Amino acid sequence: MDATTSDRIMVTVDGRTAEVPVGATILNAARQMGVSIPTLCNYRGLSCYGACRVCLVEIERGQGRQLVASCSYPAENGLVVHTETAVVKVSRQTVLELLLAQAPDSTELAEFAAGLGVESTPFTPKAEGKCILCGLCARVCNEMMGRGAINLYGRGIAKQVKTAWSEQSDQCQACGACAFVCPTGAVDLKTITSRRLRPHNTGYDQFLTARPCIDLAHPQASPRVPYIDRETCVHFKSDECGLCSKVCGAGAIDYGQMTEAIDLQVGSVVLTPGFEAFDATRRGEFGYGFAPNVLTNVQFERMLSASGPTRGHLSRPSDGRAPKRLAFIQCVGSRDSGCDNDYCSSVCCMAATKEAILAMEHEPGLEVTVFFLDLRAFGKDFDRYYERAQKLGVRYVRSFISRTYEMPGTKNLRLVHMTPEMKPVEAEFDMIVLSLGLEPSASLHDQAERLGVVLNRWGFARTNELQPLDTSRPGVYVGGAFQEPKDIPDTVMQASAAAARAMSLLAPARGTQIRTKSYPPQRDITDEPPRIGVFVCHCGSNIASVVDVEAVVKKAGKFPNVILAEHNVYTCASNNQDLMKEKIIANKLNRVVVASCTPRTHEPIFRDTLRDAGLNPYLFEMANIRDQCSWVHSATPEQATAKATDLVRMAVGRAGLLMPLQEDTVPVNNGVLVVGGGIAGMTAALALADQGFPVHLVEKGDQLGGTIRELHHTLDHGDVQAFLSQSIDRLRASKHITVHLDSHVAKVDGNVGGFTSKVVSEEGTIEIKHGVVVVATGATELKPQSYGYGQSDRVLTQLELSDRLGKGEFDLPAKATVVMIQCVEQRSEERPFCSRVCCTTAVRNALILKERFPKARIMVLYRDMRTYGFREAAYREAREKGVLFVRYDAGQPPVLEVGGKLRLKVREPALGQDLMVEPDMVVLAAPMTPRADRKEISDLLKVPLNADGFFLEAHMKLRPVDFASEGLFICGTAHSPKFITESISQANAVAARAATILSHKQMPVSGQIAYVDPDKCVSCMTCVHLCAYMAPRIGTDNKAEVQGVVCMGCGSCASECPAKAIQLRHYVDTQILAAVNSLLFAEPVEKPVQAPYPEQVGVAPPKWHKNIN
Amino acid sequence: MATYEPLILAFCCHYCAYAAADLAGSMRLQYPNNVRVLKLPCTGKLEVNFILAAFERGVDGVFVAGCLEGGCHYMEGNLRARRRVERAKVLLSEIGLEPERLEMFNLSSAQGPRFAEIVTEMTTRLAELGPSPFRPARGAEEGVREMTKQAEAHLTDEAHGCVAA
């Protein structure tokens, strides 16, 4: 059939007449009209055979009627067809009864027949069999695959489907198409093919489950279009098949798409190739690859996913049973010099902890054990999470696991681990998860060479700690795990930071290649009554195969205010969009309802069409009759049609009350206020000034630099002081930066894009106008109260030791003993957080001491060595150089006697004995605590602090440098303890995030924002207190007003307002109630009842700021 | 109860529950067709009034689905919604309607199967409770004219601050 021919004929099916192309069969014509005719042997794209006779219909012929098979009868002009007459039904029933007798074993056929009202057969069924000899399998094998591996042999009652000589066929390519098209489940591929059958397992579900050759890469794929897996597709392997192109109604299949090489002119390159998981088969001793119940953590993650292969249920691959005992083995392919991965992958400890907690939630009663070496919960709030896991019952066992043994009968796994007393114990588990290390992809080697980027010895991009974003080639920057293994927030941070580096470089070219789309002026519809156009989409057969689209259109045409109701095969297709535009103009429509897929993906497209047609984009409403109707109710078409009608009626009801909304713009001040002149503040200031934004840097002290003035060396021997003085010089030289020393910020007014602040110093108060605020107030090392600190000059903190070592004012007796105590006054009840840097600082200082005083004995007393990432190599080096690392339990901390000689006693848990040392010097790893003035800053900017006193970002994982309020940013140790290199990354990230605001001259304000009716407002401040974004404020007339730029449009204030003075535009109460009312036209719409008294429901207790502890 | 099909209205937030319902669709999960979803930007926009209006018009059940607690796109909207649902339940029981006809759920946008579960659970629950006493005969046509009138009245009323283009 050629759909493009201009010769068309008129056919009437069940009373409806439509134009169809010449040559179309009755079945084709009916499908085009959305009339469903049941059939078993017809398959789109395959030739017609007319074998099953289920598709019988009646046609009018002269004076009478005639039964014909609709799949093979060509439609002719003026043909009148009836698909549901009594004769058709009876005939179809008889046909099905005969088929049921032919294939008594087929459950598929029985279901199909039951769907058409045939439950049993009066004929004597055959003894066995599933095949109805429809020949689909043979047709697909011959016509599509060009194989002819199976065919119909014999005649009459001897007819059967089989291979040549009934032997397993060499011709068969084991593609499975025959089994796929078979309507009765009769094909057993194993009896046909001589090849080995294997499912098409794909990488996304980690080879846990088979997926079709054509599939979305993953549920969140962008663009959200399926792709063909060329590795398994028959068409790409043998040039046969091509069935999908025939089946796709939209003609979207294009086999000719090739990998294209595109030349791009760019000024900078950002590398974000990510990482690959360690190949678990390289550590075969754990059983991965042959023991089915040994999974990788990536596989386990898929298993826990609600959209994964098991839909979130834990099941053992060997037998599908839910495991009762689960073990995680950490550091598989990390911290392992045996496979050249002698670095730490940083993320696995927390990933395993998270997976353990999730697994216990999915499978109550599950026993989870984590075998680990050091528990590296070094990030913000990670230690709290680890504590929580322990409270929930996750058992953490510090033990190196060397191998697992699979039990032949049960497929359980046994392993030997050490108890805390170093006794070997055997334990058995139902399932084992390997925490795989992160590795750079092997293919990156060549790519890096082509790009001229030097890699480090593990194959990651080489950077240095003071320039963590710059590769060896200028203009090429790196983000994410390609720089060093890192978790999501660090990756997000670094990716933004790399963007900032590129933006600094390209600042002069900003905005030079922008193209703007122009729209016609919007029609004024103020005085028009609603004129609604309803467009119902078939979405090919996605909707039309279940929902009776025409019935919906017919009903929709009668809904209030509906001027026009139509249906399209694909409403979103560009030609139909043009058509919609014409219809809007021709019919003077002023509201549009589209009933199709989800507004989450398609609303912007249709809104754009409205704008093209001169309508305000907010005059649009969608009814989701695909994702939330046809796809989920495919078995009950009638009810699905009723539901779709309801959904359209609700949408029409709401659409009638939609109002045009103005999308405003406000001017943006491109200035920046940076609070804090440490390394984070300075880096952010420089990165923003490099992009040409004026910066005011306010430092309360008398000089710049903050904590890093006391630091001298990074772990990779970078000179911190030289870096600091360079930064200060650049800062002073920059024409965009104004430094305010001995100053503090006293007041910040306004909102994103338009702040006004007062900066106070001894010289007086100045007013600054700026568009964003960066908080970089830093942290400080707490002076410990324990271990005799302050009583003896031989007890110092790590920071003091670093400073003295750096300045060279440090001496020790040649054979001195230095003891470093980790986790002093941290990871405790009072301060349940880890300061992240102390383990590495101790290792670095130990290495420097060893270099200067080779004979000195250095001992590090630790709880967990948290030398994550490449810092692990330094930890290893320290051990090799003779630094002694002794673990202690939190319950039995070291005891130090000060006074005269220092005497230290520590319990070594493995030995179970106390060690006595008389150190010449004790160095304490004191916690990094937030600055004392954090509360003032928090109050000033109305930004929250977490329980430890660090500033709390908008989202712990996904928005690590933004505050919830727009235009406020956070970087450096004020956010959480971190290394210089991480502060530099985060400061650059802030520069990138801030530039997304500052680079605009005008900022758009959404139309969907809250609005206060001043006549109703009682100035109770409820809205002011509850808004997470501080959008409402009390205006000059002492009434609340909502700052449009800040409002996120959630409507929380509108619902809480006791005086009902606030409405959320586009979700006005009457609009929502109109949708509710339209669902059941029980009563006419009423005006919403005005509460006589302030409603008590859910009013937040008044307090100035909810996040102040 | 064989012929009784409950009609359920669901208030779903844009970011999580509505997305989960879409995901259930992409996964082709089959669930009872008794639910009509009404999208809100956030369940924080939900008002007790909406729930009562729905019951008053005659739906048999209402459920509210927001983000997981702690995962609200707008910080605390879903917590406010939960309080309002609790409040509405009290009101329902005061007028003699079973408070079980109303429920609040939390789910993330990745929990398509959970959405299908919720719909199944609510449908089963309401099938057991029987039709709402407020339920009228489902005749749409007589309401049409009233709706038109109201809509026209609404458009001349600029009290809710909508701006003409």
Description:
The complex is a heterodimer of chains A (1109) and B (165). Chain A has 1109 residues and is α/β, with parallel strands linked by helices. Chain A has seven domains: 1-131, Ubiquitin-like (UB roll) (Roll), CATH 3.10.20.740; 276-439, FAD/NAD(P)-binding domain (3-Layer(bba) Sandwich), CATH 3.50.50.60; 444-508, no CATH class; 532-659, Rossmann fold, CATH 3.40.50; 667-780 and 930-1000, FAD/NAD(P)-binding domain, CATH 3.50.50.60; 782-928, FAD/NAD(P)-binding domain (3-Layer(bba) Sandwich), CATH 3.50.50; 1006-1109, Alpha-Beta Plaits, CATH 3.30.70. Chain A contains 28 helices and 49 strands. Chain A has a five-stranded mixed sheet, sandwiched between helices. In chain A, strands 12-19-13-14-15 form a five-stranded parallel sheet. In chain A, a hairpin with a 2-residue loop joins strand 30 (744-751) and strand 31 (754-761). In chain A, helix 9 (297-304) packs parallel to helix 10, helix 15 crosses helix 16 and helix 22 packs parallel to helix 23 (871-880). Mean pLDDT of chain A is 90; it is low at 1-5 and 1082-1109. Helices cover 43% and strands 14% of the residues of chain B. Chain B has a single domain, classed as 3-Layer(aba) Sandwich (Rossmann fold). Chain B has helices spanning 17-26, 48-57, 77-94, 112-129, 141-155; strands spanning 8-13, 35-40, 61-66, 102-106. With 165 residues, chain B is α/β, with parallel strands linked by helices. In chain B, strand 1, helix 1 (17-26) and strand 2 form a beta-alpha-beta unit. The longest helix of chain B is centred in the middle third of the chain and has 18 residues, at 77-94. Chains A and B meet through helix 17, helix 18, helix 27 and helix 28 of A and helix 1, strand 2, helix 2, helix 3 and helix 4 of B.
Query: In the CATH classification, which architecture of the largest domain in chain A applies?
Result: 3-Layer(bba) Sandwich
How many strands appear in the DSSP assignment of chain A?
49
Order of helices and strands of chain B: EHEHEHEHH
β content of chain A, as a range? 15-25%
Cα distance spanning the termini of chain A: 73 Å
Radius of gyration of chain B, Cα only, in angstroms? 17 Å
Domain module tally of chain A: 7
Q: How would you classify the helix and strand content of chain A by structural class?
A: alpha/beta
Number of helices of chain A: 28
Q: What percent of residues of chain A adopt helix (DSSP H or I)?
A: 25-40%
Structural class assignment of chain B = alpha/beta
Report the CATH topology name of chain B: Rossmann fold
Oligomeric grouping of the chains: heterodimer
Q: Pick out the low-confidence regions of chain B.
A: 138-142, 155-165
Spatial order of strands in the largest sheet of chain A: 2-1-5-3-4
**Tally of distinct domains of chain B:** 1
Q: Let me know the average pLDDT of chain B.
A: 83
